[in-house]
Design a protein that fits this description.
transferase, Archaeosine Trna-guanine Transglycosylase, Chain: A, domain 4, proline biosynthesis, globular, about 400 residues, nucleotide-binding, 2 domains, eight-stranded mixed sheet, Carbamate kinase, ATP-binding, alpha/beta, six-stranded mixed sheet, about 35% helix
Length: about 400
Amino acid sequence: MVQGKTIVVKVGSSLLANEERLTPRWAFMHNLLEDLARLRESGAKVILCSSGSVALGMNMIGQRPETAGLRDKQAAAACGMPLLLNAYKQVAHEYSFEIAQVLVTLRDLEDRKRFLNTKNTVDRLLDANIMPIINENDTITTEEIRVGDNDRLSAKIAQMLQADELIILTQVDGLFDKDPSEPDARLVEEVTDVSPYLAVTEGVSSLGSGGMLTKIQAAHMAQNAGCETRIAHGEYEHPVTSILNNERRHTKIFANERPESAWANWLSDRLQMAGSIVVNETTAEAFKSGRRNIGREDVLSIHGPYVKGDVIHIYGESGDELARGLTNFSSDETMALARNPTLSAMQLLGYKTLGTLITDKNMVVLDDRHLTWDLPSDEVMTEVATDVST
């Protein structure tokens, strides 16, 4: 059933760390790794996305998760990571397989070259029959430059490896049609379109950084890549195989029947907004017929700063998000080009270039399968047109 499949499994801090003592939950780790060993023996490639380092390091720095600040969490991650990996290594050896740690940052996933470098590393580990354990490098990340949750990180890994299954283990049975604490809340067993459920998926655990909202966002990212997502309670004797064998209740989010290419997925599924532009109505109307180049004459306003090679969001004057694309210029260069339409790019920038801001080959026009982002507020947008009256 699983032979030849690539399976990404995500577990959160609340399953790995005792909430009061902030120590490893050894029984859960044994159950989990025994089950993953069974999958590996059946011919599956297994990747584990694991939280837990911050929670396990709190005791060493004398803090609690509820009151810890950013510096506390960074220090706790540095203390907790060796504890977490040592625990995984001890248990994995009992089931006769090797593990390796892969720490990533936001830029490793949002920058194309670094994204591919990360993919090559993970592929090499899988080729060597070593199970990668992937986590965000919380020691060096800040609020401005972090993924922020391992749900969406696991979805990016699933996209990266073109995985067949994404399993998200949590402390509830899956997605409910309303707050699961309400007596009439019902488990949603199968989902094709995640959009209707975004409004009811709020709440964050005290130990973790994500709630059901980020899990639904992760499922959406995975389904566009042709990957099926299952969300289930982690406290079970065989936490993963029991889901794959449909032995217990959980939520299954189906893969899109027409998945996008790996390139299109990387362009369209952003973890953070690097920047954005607003284009005129003529350009916005042209997007209805498909992709097109964007030139300096098309831009009305810019939200930066961003650099060459960033993926930026493209909006119409109405505020609707139209597309996302890889920019050929920084925000400063874009503004210089847009405000000086009569001067050549060579005169303005000092190097030879055609001056096309975004080419159609490096762009994805958004449709119903994509979750759009709100246009940044007017306060952070800079208009191209300037008031020349004195």
